[in-house]
Amino acid sequence: MNKIIALWSHPRSMSTAMERVMRERGDLDCAHEPFMYDYYVSRQVRRMPHFDVQPGHPVSYEAIRDMLLERAEQKPVFFKDMSYYVMPRILQDAAFRDRLVNCFLIRNPIASIPSYYKLDPDLTLEEIGLEAQWRHYTGLKQAGHDPLVIEAEAVRSDTRGTLARMWEKIGLEFSEAAFDWQNENPKDWQQVDGWHGDVSSSRAIRPLTLEEIAGQERKFFALARKEPRLLDYLEHHLPYYLRLKGAALGEDPVQGSGGD
């Protein structure tokens, strides 16, 4: 039985760069946010900008799930998606939930929120995504899973070391080829091309600098002065981010929390 590896993310968390790494390995059948079709096309929760819906792509949760299961019959599968696309339904779908190798990717929302706002000024509280990740993570823990949590900042600070630890944890061999991006941009990125300009033109993950970190904070609060709701979004999601960050650092943020 081939693996199905899921990277559960929130928008602008560097998840597309992580997907690029996994694609460059060459040993995985990769899918780019397949469940966004259920959220934005089938259920039409809202209209997603920069999304060119591809004809023939399955749109319901069940059809997308079955597509991934079918692809895994031929080859190990990797897909990256957002927890808010599938929560809470995926926790209720025990057969599929228990079939997945689950990883979570988080990024400081001070950095991710302005990056998202730049591309979609109408972003909603749910689409910030960290609360859904936390509830997804705790639901998996309560179901007996041990999902891995990775920080985008750690990936950028020590790309090889962080990815090597991730691969060891989920049972993949180390791949040096994954760090030197030679392949063409994946065809399924074309449906959301407006979201991935930087990673599409890059050849590797850029290192993180202290100057960039300081700039992210200045940028967020400057933007929040013009858009106060973004500060509300940050205050809402920050506790969930910090709990997930604790899990990335090896703590157990679920114990005693009651999942809230």
The profile of the biggest β sheet is: 5 strands, parallel
Shape: globular
Structural class comes to alpha/beta
* Average of the residue pLDDT scores: 88
| Strand ordering within the main sheet | 2-3-1-4-5
Instruction: Kindly state the number of beta strands.
Output: 5
Q: What's the helical proportion of residues?
A: 40-55%
- CATH hierarchy, class: Alpha Beta
Q: What does it look like?
A:
The structure is a single chain. A five-stranded parallel β-sheet has the order 2-3-1-4-5, with helices on both faces. It has 14 helices and five strands. Helices cover 50% and strands 10% of the residues. The N and C termini lie far apart (35 Å). It has one domain: 3-Layer(aba) Sandwich (Rossmann fold). The radius of gyration is 17 Å and the shape is globular. The model has no long low-confidence stretch (mean pLDDT 88). Helix 7 crosses helix 14 and helix 9 (130-142) runs parallel beside helix 14. It is an alpha/beta fold and 260 residues long.
Quick gist of this model?
By secondary structure, the protein is α/β, with parallel strands linked by helices.
